[in-house]
Amino acid sequence: MKQNKLNNVALGNIKINDDFWNKYTDLVDDVILPFQWELINDNVEGAEKSYCIQNFRIACGDIEGKHQGMVFQDTDVAKWLEAVGFSLAKKPNSKLEAIADEAIDLIARAQCEDGYLNTYYTITGEPRWSNLFEGHELYTAGHMIEAAVAYYQATGKRKILDVVCRFADYMCQVFGADEGKIHGYPGHPEVELALVKLYRVTGKKKYLNLANDFVRMRGEKPCYFLSEDCIKNQNFIFPEFKDFDMDYTQAHLPMKEQVTAEGHAVRAVYLYSAMADLAYEYQDEALLKQCDVIWNNIVDKRMYITGSIGSASYGERFTTDYDLPNNTNYSESCATIGLAMFSNRMFQITKDGKYADVVEQALYNTLLSGIAQDGKHFFYVNPLEVVPEIAEKNPTMRHVKTTRQLWFGVACCPPNIARTLASLGDYAYAVGDNEIYVNLFVSSRIEAGLKSGKTTLELQANYPEHGDIKLKVTPERDGQVFEVAVRKPGFSKNAVVTVNGEVVEYCLEKGYLYLEREWKSGDVIEVQLDVSFRFVYSNPKVRDNIGRVSLMKGPWVYCLEEEDNGTYLSSIMIDTASAPVKKEDPQLLGGTMCAELKGKRINYQKVEEELYCEHGPEYIEDTFKAIPYCCWNNRSKGEMLVWMREQ
User: Which pTM does this prediction carry?
Assistant: First the structure.
């Protein structure tokens, strides 16, 4: 394997100015980060308590008290700090930076002399590393490392980086494949990908080696977790863990033998992200191939059309191929983010557009459905069908919230959404030695350093409402030679490419339109993609969707809402022979492209009260309004439906 991985463009060199995405990204700096700081300080009335900052104050001796919240509560501040790092990398903010420095000082003072850092174990005195299966120590360490790397890269300040390096040095002494060390690994993967990031920023190979050991030792026989007290004596922190086999933590088989996505969905995609990183760093072709096999299993058989994963609420997990229920699914926001992370890594290694297609699908749908337009309310669970009076009264659906929440006792999703929005540029572009890859069609301006010299690229688009993409190229000098690679999404049946108004030939390879030439200042690339409305069907092996159809436009998945179409959405039958009609709604999220559909619905005015009868219902002709799934529940509580019956 001889692969040169693509790299991110520095966030400070990307300026996003997009009518659609700025509705969300601007919220991060102006609303989300200040609001979440108040939340983790327990200053928001009506929100569930976080106890996060309070735990750090207790751990460092500022106040007395007992640890409260989950064993992984420290990760709330870690992901918040990582999002701050991404935000500061894009735009200086002295007030926000001062608050972050205050948090870092607190974290540093809570660190033990030997480098260990975890408020739960420090405060409670529970023995370290005694419950890797469910104790989340390494998971928490991973998020703290990611935060430190992001903050150091944004500000150049070493304090938090030095803190996590001391912690990682300590972990390298404790864990690993060498004799005399603990041969365990995290029950919740995360630290593996974080250690790779720490290696890349510090150059210390021992961090990479530890990440590799964690992955390679996982699932070896006998399984390490079976030696822990929590399993031997059924002494669990989380009672439901007694029901989970080793596949829940992806430890049922050695990683080299795993070919399907199993267990807790977030744990899985974090682990697969690390596998992709390690495949590249060690140039391990077999491991990269395995990543592709698992990725294909997810995308071809276990992923929702919205880019979400994890169909079972109990265990927040994958189940089996084609098991994709719409109203009881879990589809955790964090899992979608993890899938985007995994897919983006695979794209950067292979330069294959199929991975970037899934990144786009996840970001445009489930990521954004997880956050309200006010930036202060969130979904943890992202169903594809909701009937509030059933979801609120049926205990098997108690995980489904019918309105977005201010905060959660387990609050991993809100700060995860924040850090993803803050780092959107990492998904939008990538650069090679002498190539610029355009992955997301987000109006923006980037400055990229290539082998041939610096280059500025300005992208203009109103995507996915329209498929016209314009790229203005400004090389450092006229005559500079490099490649611009523009993704041709898998749904786009065709693409027309012009440079300075003239149709040009291009090389289409693995979903990218490659244009190489001597560029001069002011050159304009125009790409016309097909983003027309289209009806999409699922494989008939997905039992829940037999006889049903969904509507898409570009990467957007559409849905019906009670707000526009009344109740009993499941009674609606769509006439797919009639083309959807574009309907701009200026009142929906400041202007959104909606669709008008023709079809029939049951006339409930003529439905009698008897439960069973020997005649069918009467249907009446009607028109229906569909909106992008990411926009649902921003106006009122009500029914929602993605998969519609076909007439």
Answer: 0.97
